Amino acid sequence: MKRITMQQIADHLGLSKFAVSKALSGKGGVSEATKKRVIQAASELGYFGQKSAYVKNQIPAERKASIHGKRSVLVLMPNTRFQNKESLYWGKILEGISEELDVRQLGMIIVSDSRSEDFLHVLNLEGILGMIGVGQIESSLLLEVHRLGLPLILVDHEDALIPTDTVFANNRDSMSRLCTHLVGLGHTRLHFLGDIQFSSSFHDRWIGFREVLELNGLTVPDRQDPMLRLRGVEIGEYGSDVKEWIAAQKRNKPMPSALVCANDSIALHVRQLLKEADIEVPAGMAITGFDNIDDAYRSDPPITTVDVPKQAMGHRAVKRLLERISNPEQPYEKILVCAELVHRDSTAAPVSADAQK
């Protein structure tokens, strides 16, 4: 196969080879916009998929052959405002990573700095087996890890530019089962709430939702529907938008009979907004979440959801990292961990046939 060179990338973009080299070096010297263009083009042309095309430091032979002795795994969680040890979702994944590393007598170093130039200063490759990235991570940072030749596993995140192993919950199939359950109860007007562009998991959940509606001949919300593009899903910034939408649904009727939320946090927020609008759950409208965080059980009524095996995902990420270190030439894998439905009191059959007309 013909190798892709920096000169080819430069010609493709109409840039100098020097600018491309700077953009790929991780050392600055070009604008952020130019850097993104170069990274995108390099990915599209297949530059990063080439063996050793972008790797500065190869994995030491002793790290490939053995993991004996006290070694550490780097856990990168740069979005610390929402992804941290105290999080009801991310904290459980981190707990699973920690448990599996303890069993194997390996250390864990948590890094929360998202700036690649600072990230390099904390790395001592001689003492680090590899890295597990948890949640959303910028491409530029992942690119730097890839450049260093550090084995990398991503949990609940994937990057179209960087080839790597990933671990996800089986979001699509789990959402399909949840929506099939709602249709089985008699619901024919379902609406999805979330930001389908926020993450791969949210998008996969939307696909599972859409497939069930299409299979049953039900109306699918338009992709431009504002409830599919909720603002600030991490902090509930969308509250006023959803409140206005609920009011419009009450005026225009018929209202959706079931709201399918992209995660439990959104479901809990929307549940409160329905209460303020005097819409009873589940009699006036059923509601579901996803993830099975502790607060979903404590809600009134408790939220029907999907139990994402968060700790199991952490365990599996460690196992896959060690497999990757032992067998670096293996094809990359996208590992899907099965998730189960949790039936609670926020869902029920529509009150009457009239409610569906």
TrEMBL record:
Keywords: DNA-binding, Repressor, Transcription, Transcription regulation. InterPro entries: HTH_LacI, LacI/GalR-like_sensor, Lambda_DNA-bd_dom_sf, Peripla_BP_I. Residues 4-47 form the HTH lacI-type domain. PANTHER family: HTH-TYPE TRANSCRIPTIONAL REPRESSOR PURR-RELATED, LACI-RELATED TRANSCRIPTIONAL REPRESSOR. This is HTH-type transcriptional regulator DegA. It comes from Paenibacillus plantiphilus. The gene is degA_1.
